[in-house]
Write a structure and sequence with these properties.
The complex is a heterodimer of chains A (99) and B (385).
Chain A lengths: L5 E2 L7 E4 L8 E6 L2 E6 L9 E3 L8 E4 L2 E6 L8 E2 L4 E2 L11
Antiparallel strand pairs in A: 1-2, 2-5, 3-4, 5-8, 6-7, 7-9
Chain B lengths: L1 E6 L5 E2 L3 E6 L5 H10 L3 E2 L11 H16 L3 E8 L7 H9 L5 E5 L6 H20 L4 E4 L4 E6 L10 H14 L3 E4 L9 H5 L5 H20 L11 H5 L5 H8 L8 E5 L9 E5 L5 H10 L4 E6 L12 E5 L2 H6 L6 E2 L1 H4 L5 H16 L5 H4 L15
Helix pairs in contact in B: 1-4, 2-3, 2-10, 5-13
The chains are: A mainly beta (99), B alpha/beta (385).
């Protein structure tokens, strides 16, 4: 299990970070605050990018560092890449204000 | 802790001893540049500000020029204007002279053009550089240092390695009685509640929320998603997905100490300890603001890599990952990628950064100084007329 480096910062988090290149089907074990879980990666995750550690529903907040980093644009299954295609920021959204 | 610094007439201490040719208007920057080619020991910078500015935008630019000249890393200043601009060179010169250092003011229109002005400024500069060279370093207390912190070209490692390490260093600076500046308000959007909890009092907490609201409202008033500008394409390529995610990583540079005050752009801190300066996330604009506020040294973390430097302040650049540190080694001073590699702890790297601050204070040159990277840019808050 040690062949892939990942970082899971808080057991409240819905995402973790790949610290090595993760291929599809990689099995990773994540640990934070005494809490441990196993995830199968669904698609290649590049160094520094995030993957879901649990199923996230469309519209739900996405949590990293134990804090909100945005909301899910679509349903995201555990093990999927989480990035700008399925996560949107909630702050500084002038585009969402009705004119 | 102590270091060898240059004591200035106003009591502040510099870690460098520059003669600054300060062009108050873009029209004078080329002339200033020519003088620095002729006279060693002088520095200047290219910029596009200083005319047709009004109100708070005028004030902010004037404060930045004056603060830059007053920075204790500068021995003396030759303020160079064109003559007809809104930011009159003599007004900036008078402001700088209040701190007691040598100041001369020259205008191109008064001196009959480019060539005669170059000759006049160069003559003054020769004398000033020689006078500067006779100032001896003396032993100074670490509490006299103001250290700016910033991150630029962030990647997903920024919030895991270099930024938390700078946070540890920030705590050590405060423990030594010094001042650490946290800046880039844009990149604290989404993390302001964590900083407000650490505020010294309610007023400081209120100002923290207020500057965040003003910054966020700018994107809301423009009807745009702030993500189209920040995080940048390079940040996104590196794995950062939203401004909130970037902010939570950026805010770790502040360490764990109490937030003493929130100050305006290019303003001098009135308190020691951790201070938040209201600046945008733009690397050069925030760097310029902190140096104008009196920072003698700046810590700059980067994941993507950057050449950034200041004409008057050493910038210690810290990489968040080892591959970039190797790839852009001529630009980067320290590597915090060892944390991600599992070779060093955040605390160990924080200690290494602290040691580097001491070496650089004593005269060790940073990569950006050696490469003459003299960046300067003012945060403009109004239109040009």
């Amino acid at each position: 299990m040690d062949e892939y480096k990942t970082l899971y910062l808080s057991s409240k988090d819905s995402v973790a970070v790949a610290l090595s290149e993760l291929p599809a089907q990689a099995d990773v074990i994540l640990k934070a605050d005494e809490y441990e879980l196993g995830i199968t990666i669904l698609e290649p995750i590049r160094f520094g990018h995030k993957f879901a550690v649990k199923a996230i529903r469309q519209g739900d907040d996405i949590i990293k560092y134990g804090e909100v980093i945005g909301a899910a644009v679509t349903d995201i299954p555990a093990g999927a890449h989480v990035h700008v295609h399925n996560l949107e920021g909630k702050r500084g959204r002038g585009d969402k204000i009705a004119k | 802790m102590q270091f060898w610094g240059y004591r200035r007439p106003d009591g502040r201490v510099g870690v460098r001893n520059h003669v600054l040719i300060l062009p108050t208007i873009t029209c004078a920057t080329q002339t200033a540049q020519r003088v620095t080619e002729l006279v060693s020991g002088t520095v200047t910078f290219i910029h596009q500000h200083g005319c047709a500015q009004v109100g708070t935008d005028y004030d902010q630019t004037a404060r930045t020029y004056a603060g830059f000249g007053m920075n204790p890393n500068v021995y003396g200043v030759i303020v160079l204007g064109l003559g007809c601009e809104t930011h009159q060179a003599h007004r900036i010169g008078d402001e700088i002279a209040k701190c007691g250092k040598p100041v001369e003011t020259i205008s191109i229109q008064d001196h009959g053009g480019t060539l005669q002005t170059i000759a006049e400024v160069a003559k003054i500069a020769v004398r000033m550089v020689q006078d500067a060279s006779m100032v001896q370093r003396e032993l100074c207390d670490f509490s006299e240092l103001i250290v700016g912190t910033e991150c630029g070209g962030s990647d997903a490692c920024s919030g895991l390695s270099a930024n938390p390490a700078v946070g540890r260093t920030s705590d050590m600076i405060v423990e030594q009685g010094g001042t650490a500046i946290l800046a880039e308000t844009t990149e604290l959007i989404g993390a302001e509640h964590l900083l407000a909890k650490r505020a010294a009092n309610d007023q400081v907490a209120k100002k923290a929320y207020a500057v965040i609201k003003m910054m966020e409202n700018r994107s809301i008033e423009m009807g745009v998603d702030i993500r189209t500008g920040n995080p940048s394409p390079g940040n996104i390529e590196g794995g950062l997905s939203s401004l909130e995610e970037k902010s939570l990583g950026a805010s770790t540079k502040s360490g764990t100490t109490r937030l003493e005050e929130v100050i305006d752009y290019a303003q001098q801190p009135t308190k020691k300890g951790l201070v938040w300066m209201d600046t945008p996330g733009h690397d050069i604009e925030q760097l310029t603001g902190m140096v104008a506020g009196g920072a003698q040294i700046v810590l700059f973390t980067s994941g993507r890599g950057t050449p950034t430097g200041s004409p008057i302040a050493p910038v210690i650049k810290i990489s968040t990952n080892t591959p970039m540190f190797d790839r852009m080694n001529e630009n980067m001073d320290l590597n915090a990628g060892t944390i991600v590699d599992g070779e060093e702890t955040v605390g160990e790297v924080g200690m290494r950064i602290m040691d580097e601050i001491k070496s650089v204070s004593n005269g060790k040159l940073t990569k950006s100084e050696i490469l003459k990277q003299h960046d300067f840019g003012i945060w403009r808050i109004g239109p040009t007329f």
